[in-house]
Amino acid sequence: MRIDPKSHVPVYLQIVEEIRTSIAAGVYLPGEVVPSVRVLALESQVNPNTVQRAYEELERQGVIESRRGVGKFVCRRGQHSAVAQSESAVRGEFQRGIDIARAADLPVKRIRALFEECLADSRKAEAKS
Amino acid sequence: MRIDPKSHVPVYLQIVEEIRTSIAAGVYLPGEVVPSVRVLALESQVNPNTVQRAYEELERQGVIESRRGVGKFVCRRGQHSAVAQSESAVRGEFQRGIDIARAADLPVKRIRALFEECLADSRKAEAKS
Amino acid sequence: MRIDPKSHVPVYLQIVEEIRTSIAAGVYLPGEVVPSVRVLALESQVNPNTVQRAYEELERQGVIESRRGVGKFVCRRGQHSAVAQSESAVRGEFQRGIDIARAADLPVKRIRALFEECLADSRKAEAKS
Amino acid sequence: MRIDPKSHVPVYLQIVEEIRTSIAAGVYLPGEVVPSVRVLALESQVNPNTVQRAYEELERQGVIESRRGVGKFVCRRGQHSAVAQSESAVRGEFQRGIDIARAADLPVKRIRALFEECLADSRKAEAKS
DNA sequence: GTGGTCTAGACCACT
DNA sequence: GTGGTCTAGACCACT
């Protein structure tokens, strides 16, 4: 759980993203339970209210569902929803980057170069860990 | 000037981005004056204080400089700074998108495909206008 | 907190100086919380926005950092930064004084005498209190 | 005439200081005429109104006097007043520096060292020019 | 008219 | 309660 408290994105949305991508990646499979609010709050050094709010959002998105007194579970089609929504989030970021680049009049070649640099950095970082 | 009041990104930072990309694109050249605080506030339907704050940030970034009672001007090396900072902003967006994608375990091929789709969409949109 | 509303120096910069010298002097140690925006505003009879602006400047200077909903804290190396920046502020004042003195053609001996007088006054004032 | 448009000190007061130190240094002797508002405005790249305001202040201080249709002249005791006021301005700067230093808990030894460094810098700069 | 600073008061995100 | 952002409106210094 990597939360950036200085980001403009509200913390609860950062948590939504984190959990959603975990589900998309198959860390939590359909029918399985996700970490409790308390546990996740401790792990990510965040107030339980904030985690609660994140889980409400994921429920609204149809990714998880809540069983009172038991816990929260990944929906049957939860992984599909999560993948779809992650892709849509990824698109959003790329689109924003491209918009800035085009407004600044960067040539397409340069935009692609910047993207490939980022991708290479990310793969190097992964290889290390 | 397109300001999205619903964005998580503060309005003043959206203005920073807008002006910075304009300078990067050569709309305002080094030594030239940028729109006055009051004019920009009227144009973008935003409070003058918010515009002022955006301009303070651009001054801190070394893109513009201010002459009291006269106006604000693009610094000699202002366009270079603006381009550099735009590229760094673009990188930031791409990195964030790639991070989400990798956390969701999307294959590199799929990540590139998503990027190329976004790029193609953006070029189509431009061709239209 | 002594704020002089008649000074040419903006109030928010006077606050920056006050807090910075307190941190330099070890009143607030690294990792400790500094007074909240509202509390400081009440204490110094100043609008909260003005205090906020001062704290933003200190954050930019790497002296304090902010945790949303929690408070503002002295950075690990915050005391060092504060001392360095205080010394630089002191130099600035001395330089300005010396510049005026030399432009008015005061002999070096006289400049030193003026400085020692000020220093002696300051020590006397301290001894009293 | 060195005017710093970014200083917190109003430009007209910077001009007052400049002219006063010139008179203190004997550049303009008692009975002699000082540069006209127009000339000084051109030389220092400043609006004539601002220069006018500076001269009014110097007149109020008893350093110069105005003869309508002729010009502005250094008063009989103008040089003495100028020296006295320059010394007082110098003291003010030194005092402010010392105050910051003492509030930041710098040892007296360090304060003196900072002063001597500034003095040495100033003498080097003069030697060069 | 142009920039710089400040106040008063509001609303949001987070604890 | 704590920080972050924004609006509305004011006054000052300077052109």
Please describe what this structure looks like.
Four copies of one chain form a homotetramer. Chain A has 129 residues and is mainly α. Helix content of chain A is 63%, strand content 6%. Chain A has a two-stranded antiparallel ribbon. The longest helix of chain A is centred in the C-terminal third of the chain and has 26 residues, at 78-103. The first copy, chain A, starts with 10 loop residues before the first helix and ends with a helix. The relative contact order of chain A is 0.12. Chains in contact: A-B, A-C, B-D, C-D. Chain B binds chain D through residues 66-69, and chain D through 5-6, 47. Chain B binds a DNA duplex (15 and 15 nucleotides) through helix 3.
Beta-strand residue percentage of chain A: 5-15%
What class would the helix/strand composition of chain A place it in?
mainly alpha
Largest sheet of chain A: 2 strands, antiparallel
Quaternary structure state of the chains depicted: homotetramer
Shape of chain A: elongated
Secondary-structure element series of chain A: HHHEEHH
Mean pLDDT of chain A: 90
